[in-house]
Design goal:
mainly beta, 5 strands, 72 residues, five-stranded antiparallel sheet
């Protein structure tokens, strides 16, 4: 994924499809803190810690949307 495509998500929560070095694919929810030419750094809710992800291994990204349901 290109840096310019990710830049609009800075300081936001996103859902990301990511391919690891071993070829496994995971769906992650992250809060993006920093974007460089080659990576994205942010809090990963799956691993519960700050992580760095390579841009060339991000397959897809979309903003996290929250929907609230009020039950009676």
């Amino acid at each position: 994924m290109k840096q310019s495509a990710v830049a609009k998500f800075l300081k936001q929560q996103v859902i990301m499809i990511y391919m690891a070095k071993d070829g496994s694919v995971t769906k992650r929810r992250i809060q993006i803190d920093r974007i460089t030419e080659t990576s994205v750094t942010g809090y990963c809710y799956l691993r519960k810690q700050q992580r760095t992800f390579r841009l060339d291994q991000i397959l897809a990204m979309q903003p996290q949307t929250t929907s609230w349901r009020i039950s009676s």
